[in-house]
Amino acid sequence: MRTDHGLQVIRIALIGAGRIGTMHAGHIARRVPAAELAAVVDLRLDVAESVAAKYDAKATAELDDVLKDPEIEAVAITSFADVHSELVVRAAEAGKAVFCEKPASLDLVEMDRAILATRKAGVPFQVGFNRRFAADFAAAHAAVVRGEIGTPQQLRSVTRDPGWPGGLSNSVNIKPWTIFRETLIHDFDTLLWLNPGAEPIEVYTRADALVAPQYKDSGLIDTASVMLSFDNGAIATAEASFSALYGYDVRGEVFGSKGMVTAGRHASSPMLQYGEQGISQQTLRSDEEMFGDAYVAEVSQFADAIRTGSTPPVTGEDARRALRVALAAMKSHEEHRPVQLTEIG
What we know:
alpha/beta, Rossmann fold, Dihydrodipicolinate Reductase, domain 2, 7-stranded mixed beta sheet, 9 helices, 34% helix
């Protein structure tokens, strides 16, 4: 067993070398303490080789190459969302600890299959809800848990992706239901996390194609607001848009009987520029800018869970709860009515 500054080195294979996977590769190799990027797997071998070469890792197009390697303890799944659950199952059956980017599954049957596989194998299973690891969101959660804002009454979570004046540049590549299962899934997890001990009981959605209406008939929804009612009386809203011209906009808020906490920021630095047209400030333009440290922290805690045998900080069950809300939001949109969570598995 190799160690680094007294910590067991965890050898991790990356599965999927797209934008998010490439980012995780760099973090695992350079920023996560006592972690090693052992391999990069991608069906596009040239892409795998390009990423792996930066960090002296092995590149392969064959998943079995890493699943059968006894020196690889864990995998980080950063591939397309529709294959996440199957990859979780295969990795668990091979005895590998699993970190999986959100969403861990697109439906509850496959989500349950993934959870069962990791339980049966006795391996850690963590899902990548990065906001929980951002310093401001974590501080807000801690304040709620300590009771400093009293009983949560109203909650809000916002995700607005950067946009372009001409509309969505990649509309044809966005799959139907993406806004619920891959974007708002973050907000649903955040709202559940910021209202600890409470369960959602009802969901109501209003959504449309306001940014790229020409793609509405193909199933693209680019703007959505979802209201959640909780069993502790709290009312929450989750909002998403695929076109914020001013930058990357992610915020959270909890208003309670004793006060309020907020999290999230727009500015890329505190610097203000003064000129003849007024005061301006540069804004964040990507998730990597806003959540770079959070991405590192989540994988660092995943590695710690492997070393200590502890439960990862974000579990498959957490991912299932958020997915269940997402599916209720989709049903509400389709049927134009409030949906009870009891209607969803």
